[in-house]
Design brief:
Blueprint (H helix, E strand, L loop, with lengths): L2 H17 L3 H38 L3 H4 L14 H9 L2 H32 L5 H13 L6 H9 L1 E3 L2 E3 L6 H8 L6 H13 L3 H9 L4 H12 L1 H17 L2 H6 L6 H6 L1 H13 L7 H40 L1
Antiparallel strand pairs: 1-2
Helix pairs in contact: 2-16, 4-16, 5-8, 5-9, 5-12, 6-9, 9-12, 10-11, 12-16
Amino acid sequence: MTKKNKTSNQSGFWARNEASDGILLKETTKKYAISIFRAILLFGMCFMIIQPILNKISVSLMSEADLYDSTIILVPKHFTLANWKLVNYLMNYKVTLFNTIWVSLLVSLIEVAMCSIVGYGFSRFNFPLKRFWFFCVILVIVIPPQTISTSLFLHFRYFNLFGKTVNLRGNMLPYIMMCFTCQGLKNGLYIYMIRQFFMGFPFELEEAAYVDGCGPLKTFVRIMIPGAKPIITSCFLFSFVWQWTDGFYTSLFLGKIQLLSINLSNVVEKLGAYLTKLYGGSTLVSVGYSNAILSTATLLAIFPVIILYIFCQRMFVESLASTGVKM
């Protein structure tokens, strides 16, 4: 744009502002002020989220000498990958990562399938004590699982199987049983979300399917499920990520299976045992070094979830947006 055009535009703006009795200038100033405020707010929120991750990345790449150097803030002087190699060994990362992937995937698929059936039932069918059972679903959301941890432990530790006591802890069977009965991690929330979605689903589609000869199950599978892809996608991603980072149910039932959440919680203890075995005798691990190892282990645990979000963010955002419209 030439200087002459800029001058003409500016003169045109002031002329229009004068014609509007100053309203144009006020609205333009308000628009730019809101844009600047929004940009500052978004930058601050992004910085609050990213800054701890950047600190962990920086600490994980530092040597032990850099950890106690007061002149180093973010960029290490002695760049090293020794912490990553050590954490990879301490956590048995390849085996642990594979176990975490298949456990999270299996649990998420079962939870979403069962919660979809239950949520559809609550939204479409009338049955005795329907409001009471839905109130129980709300209680599952409100009451933390830690309050029933003792009863869960005793129930599966001394499980009564045809009059014979069997210890089911230490394998996937108790967890799968809970997922099939919608008592797994956050299942009440998934039922509520799916139920709300189906409540806004057009009844005419089901009526047309019934006229064509479809039963309730066939209508659910062929009509309702394809239309509920947004909410099912949201619930699946929520379930997968929450299961990935869960430490309560995994330690209660899956203690014998190496998972990232379990190994992450005791990586510092494994570091002490490793150094004791390496140098002999009792070895005291410094606080700074243990924090560096813990930060590195945390990054190894969350990187797969970050990669999952990068590839699924469009689908996830679109599913939430569509769900919000339906609800």
